[in-house]
Amino acid sequence: MGKCEQCIIKQFNSLKSLTKDELVRISACKTAKTIKKGTILFEEGESINGVYCVKDGICKLSKLSENGKDQIVKMVVKGQLIGQRSLVTDESSNLQATALNDMEVCFIPKSEIIADLQKNPKFSYDMLKDMAHDLKEADDVIVNMAQKSVRQRLAETLIYIHDSFGVNPDGTLSVLLSREDFANIVGTATESAIRILSQFKKEGLISTHGKYIKIEDLNALKRVE
Predict the structure, then answer these.
(1) The whole model's pTM is what?
(2) Residues facing 40 on adjacent strands
(3) Distance between CA atoms of 75 and 200, rounded to whole angstroms?
(4) In a 10 Å sphere around its CB, with 0-12 CB exposed, 13-18 middle and 19+ buried, how is residue 224 labelled?
(5) Could you read off the pLDDT of 67-118 as tens digits, one per residue?
(6) DSSP reduced 3-state for 31
(7) How many other β-carbons are positioned within 10 Å of the β-carbon of residue 122?
(8) Which of 23, 46, 194, 216 has a CA positioned 20 to 30 A from the CA of residue 91?
(9) What is the maximal distance between C-alpha atoms in the chain?
(10) What pLDDT was estimated at residue 33?
(11) Using N-to-C axis directions, what is the helix angle for 150-165 and 179-186, rounded to 10°?
Protein backbone atom coordinates (compact mmCIF):
# COMPACT_ATOMS: atom_id res chain seq x y z
CA MET A 1 0.00 0.00 0.00
CA GLY A 2 1.43 3.38 -1.04
CA LYS A 3 2.34 6.08 1.45
CA CYS A 4 0.36 9.35 1.39
CA GLU A 5 3.49 11.47 1.84
CA GLN A 6 5.00 9.92 -1.33
CA CYS A 7 1.80 9.85 -3.41
CA ILE A 8 1.75 12.31 -6.32
CA ILE A 9 -2.07 12.30 -6.43
CA LYS A 10 -2.22 14.53 -3.34
CA GLN A 11 -0.77 17.39 -5.43
CA PHE A 12 -4.13 17.67 -7.21
CA ASN A 13 -6.28 18.29 -4.13
CA SER A 14 -6.25 19.94 -0.70
CA LEU A 15 -4.22 17.08 0.87
CA LYS A 16 -1.12 18.79 -0.58
CA SER A 17 -1.38 21.34 2.26
CA LEU A 18 -0.92 18.78 5.01
CA THR A 19 2.48 18.54 6.68
CA LYS A 20 4.64 15.45 6.24
CA ASP A 21 3.86 14.35 9.81
CA GLU A 22 0.12 14.71 9.20
CA LEU A 23 0.39 12.73 5.95
CA VAL A 24 2.41 9.97 7.64
CA ARG A 25 -0.25 9.64 10.36
CA ILE A 26 -3.11 9.61 7.83
CA SER A 27 -1.26 7.08 5.67
CA ALA A 28 -1.24 4.65 8.58
CA CYS A 29 -5.03 4.74 8.96
CA LYS A 30 -6.28 5.07 5.37
CA THR A 31 -7.80 2.15 3.49
CA ALA A 32 -6.89 1.53 -0.17
CA LYS A 33 -9.70 0.02 -2.22
CA THR A 34 -10.26 -1.20 -5.78
CA ILE A 35 -13.77 -0.33 -6.93
CA LYS A 36 -15.10 -2.25 -9.93
CA LYS A 37 -17.00 -0.50 -12.73
CA GLY A 38 -20.67 -0.07 -11.81
CA THR A 39 -20.05 -0.45 -8.07
CA ILE A 40 -21.65 2.08 -5.72
CA LEU A 41 -19.10 3.72 -3.37
CA PHE A 42 -21.86 5.18 -1.20
CA GLU A 43 -25.58 5.78 -1.53
CA GLU A 44 -27.74 8.85 -1.10
CA GLY A 45 -28.62 9.19 2.59
CA GLU A 46 -25.55 7.24 3.74
CA SER A 47 -23.13 8.65 6.32
CA ILE A 48 -19.71 8.74 4.65
CA ASN A 49 -17.70 9.79 7.74
CA GLY A 50 -14.55 10.49 5.77
CA VAL A 51 -13.17 11.35 2.36
CA TYR A 52 -12.24 9.30 -0.68
CA CYS A 53 -9.13 10.30 -2.60
CA VAL A 54 -9.39 9.09 -6.22
CA LYS A 55 -6.06 7.59 -7.33
CA ASP A 56 -7.41 6.35 -10.65
CA GLY A 57 -10.69 6.10 -12.52
CA ILE A 58 -13.87 8.16 -12.74
CA CYS A 59 -17.12 8.10 -10.80
CA LYS A 60 -20.44 9.85 -11.21
CA LEU A 61 -22.25 11.67 -8.40
CA SER A 62 -26.00 11.47 -8.92
CA LYS A 63 -29.27 12.24 -7.16
CA LEU A 64 -32.51 10.33 -7.49
CA SER A 65 -35.35 12.65 -8.56
CA GLU A 66 -39.00 12.28 -7.56
CA ASN A 67 -39.84 10.57 -10.87
CA GLY A 68 -37.27 7.88 -10.15
CA LYS A 69 -34.63 9.11 -12.61
CA ASP A 70 -30.97 9.67 -11.74
CA GLN A 71 -29.68 13.20 -12.29
CA ILE A 72 -25.92 13.16 -12.71
CA VAL A 73 -24.60 16.20 -10.83
CA LYS A 74 -20.88 15.78 -11.34
CA MET A 75 -18.17 13.45 -12.57
CA VAL A 76 -15.22 13.00 -10.21
CA VAL A 77 -11.85 12.14 -11.72
CA LYS A 78 -8.35 11.06 -10.74
CA GLY A 79 -6.81 13.44 -8.20
CA GLN A 80 -10.08 14.71 -6.71
CA LEU A 81 -11.63 14.12 -3.29
CA ILE A 82 -15.16 12.86 -2.63
CA GLY A 83 -17.05 13.55 0.57
CA GLN A 84 -15.32 16.74 1.72
CA ARG A 85 -18.56 18.10 3.15
CA SER A 86 -18.73 15.14 5.55
CA LEU A 87 -15.70 16.66 7.31
CA VAL A 88 -17.46 19.89 8.22
CA THR A 89 -21.01 18.65 8.72
CA ASP A 90 -22.64 15.58 10.25
CA GLU A 91 -25.22 15.42 7.45
CA SER A 92 -25.55 12.22 5.45
CA SER A 93 -24.66 12.32 1.77
CA ASN A 94 -27.21 13.92 -0.56
CA LEU A 95 -25.67 12.13 -3.57
CA GLN A 96 -24.82 8.61 -4.70
CA ALA A 97 -21.34 7.82 -6.04
CA THR A 98 -21.00 5.12 -8.72
CA ALA A 99 -17.81 3.98 -10.47
CA LEU A 100 -17.94 4.60 -14.25
CA ASN A 101 -14.85 2.46 -14.75
CA ASP A 102 -12.51 0.49 -12.50
CA MET A 103 -11.25 2.81 -9.76
CA GLU A 104 -8.45 2.95 -7.21
CA VAL A 105 -9.41 5.00 -4.16
CA CYS A 106 -8.11 5.63 -0.66
CA PHE A 107 -10.58 6.22 2.18
CA ILE A 108 -9.50 8.50 5.04
CA PRO A 109 -11.75 8.34 8.15
CA LYS A 110 -13.17 11.64 9.37
CA SER A 111 -11.84 10.98 12.88
CA GLU A 112 -8.27 10.95 11.55
CA ILE A 113 -8.44 14.15 9.49
CA ILE A 114 -10.83 16.44 11.41
CA ALA A 115 -8.07 17.66 13.78
CA ASP A 116 -5.92 18.65 10.78
CA LEU A 117 -8.82 20.69 9.44
CA GLN A 118 -8.96 22.56 12.76
CA LYS A 119 -5.19 23.00 13.27
CA ASN A 120 -3.82 23.51 9.75
CA PRO A 121 -5.21 26.77 8.28
CA LYS A 122 -3.72 26.20 4.80
CA PHE A 123 -5.43 22.80 4.59
CA SER A 124 -8.73 24.34 5.75
CA TYR A 125 -8.41 27.17 3.21
CA ASP A 126 -7.66 24.81 0.31
CA MET A 127 -10.60 22.60 1.19
CA LEU A 128 -12.81 25.69 1.41
CA LYS A 129 -11.66 26.71 -2.08
CA ASP A 130 -12.51 23.25 -3.42
CA MET A 131 -15.99 23.44 -1.90
CA ALA A 132 -16.50 26.94 -3.34
CA HIS A 133 -15.55 25.58 -6.76
CA ASP A 134 -18.08 22.74 -6.36
CA LEU A 135 -20.72 25.31 -5.45
CA LYS A 136 -19.93 27.38 -8.54
CA GLU A 137 -20.21 24.27 -10.73
CA ALA A 138 -23.59 23.46 -9.14
CA ASP A 139 -24.77 27.04 -9.89
CA ASP A 140 -23.68 26.64 -13.52
CA VAL A 141 -25.64 23.37 -13.82
CA ILE A 142 -28.80 25.09 -12.53
CA VAL A 143 -28.42 27.98 -15.00
CA ASN A 144 -27.71 25.61 -17.91
CA MET A 145 -30.81 23.56 -17.12
CA ALA A 146 -32.96 26.68 -17.13
CA GLN A 147 -31.49 28.59 -20.07
CA LYS A 148 -30.06 26.11 -22.58
CA SER A 149 -31.72 23.60 -24.89
CA VAL A 150 -31.18 19.85 -24.47
CA ARG A 151 -29.20 19.94 -27.75
CA GLN A 152 -26.87 22.60 -26.33
CA ARG A 153 -26.44 20.75 -23.04
CA LEU A 154 -25.65 17.48 -24.79
CA ALA A 155 -23.14 19.20 -27.09
CA GLU A 156 -21.48 20.83 -24.05
CA THR A 157 -21.31 17.45 -22.30
CA LEU A 158 -19.50 15.89 -25.27
CA ILE A 159 -17.07 18.84 -25.35
CA TYR A 160 -16.52 18.61 -21.57
CA ILE A 161 -15.70 14.88 -21.81
CA HIS A 162 -13.37 15.55 -24.75
CA ASP A 163 -11.54 18.40 -22.98
CA SER A 164 -11.40 16.79 -19.53
CA PHE A 165 -10.63 13.15 -20.30
CA GLY A 166 -9.15 13.13 -23.81
CA VAL A 167 -9.47 10.54 -26.56
CA ASN A 168 -8.39 6.97 -27.36
CA PRO A 169 -5.75 6.32 -30.07
CA ASP A 170 -8.59 6.01 -32.64
CA GLY A 171 -9.94 9.45 -31.69
CA THR A 172 -13.01 8.22 -29.79
CA LEU A 173 -13.83 9.75 -26.40
CA SER A 174 -11.86 7.88 -23.73
CA VAL A 175 -14.77 7.86 -21.26
CA LEU A 176 -17.48 5.39 -22.26
CA LEU A 177 -20.88 6.59 -21.04
CA SER A 178 -24.17 4.82 -21.68
CA ARG A 179 -26.89 6.70 -23.56
CA GLU A 180 -28.77 6.70 -20.24
CA ASP A 181 -25.80 8.40 -18.56
CA PHE A 182 -25.82 11.14 -21.21
CA ALA A 183 -29.56 11.61 -20.63
CA ASN A 184 -29.03 11.78 -16.87
CA ILE A 185 -26.30 14.41 -17.21
CA VAL A 186 -28.40 16.77 -19.34
CA GLY A 187 -31.70 16.04 -17.60
CA THR A 188 -33.75 14.45 -20.36
CA ALA A 189 -35.29 11.10 -21.33
CA THR A 190 -32.93 8.42 -22.70
CA GLU A 191 -34.93 8.38 -25.96
CA SER A 192 -34.34 12.13 -26.40
CA ALA A 193 -30.59 11.76 -25.84
CA ILE A 194 -30.45 8.93 -28.41
CA ARG A 195 -32.42 11.03 -30.92
CA ILE A 196 -30.17 14.08 -30.49
CA LEU A 197 -26.98 12.00 -30.79
CA SER A 198 -28.42 10.59 -34.04
CA GLN A 199 -29.05 14.17 -35.25
CA PHE A 200 -25.45 15.13 -34.39
CA LYS A 201 -24.28 12.09 -36.37
CA LYS A 202 -26.39 13.06 -39.43
CA GLU A 203 -25.05 16.62 -39.20
CA GLY A 204 -21.47 15.31 -39.27
CA LEU A 205 -20.66 16.60 -35.75
CA ILE A 206 -19.92 13.15 -34.35
CA SER A 207 -19.48 9.55 -35.48
CA THR A 208 -20.10 6.37 -33.51
CA HIS A 209 -17.86 3.32 -33.28
CA GLY A 210 -19.84 0.68 -31.45
CA LYS A 211 -20.70 2.28 -28.10
CA TYR A 212 -17.90 4.84 -28.43
CA ILE A 213 -18.36 8.38 -29.77
CA LYS A 214 -15.88 10.40 -31.82
CA ILE A 215 -16.17 14.16 -32.22
CA GLU A 216 -15.74 14.99 -35.91
CA ASP A 217 -16.30 18.77 -35.79
CA LEU A 218 -15.51 20.32 -32.40
CA ASN A 219 -16.06 23.92 -33.53
CA ALA A 220 -19.48 23.15 -35.01
CA LEU A 221 -20.41 21.30 -31.78
CA LYS A 222 -19.58 24.48 -29.85
CA ARG A 223 -22.03 26.42 -32.04
CA VAL A 224 -24.99 24.07 -31.51
CA GLU A 225 -28.22 25.83 -30.59
Answers:
(1) 0.82
(2) 98
(3) 23
(4) buried
(5) 777 888 888 988 999 998 888 888 899 999 999 989 999 999 999 899 898 8
(6) strand
(7) 12
(8) 23
(9) 58
(10) 94
(11) 110
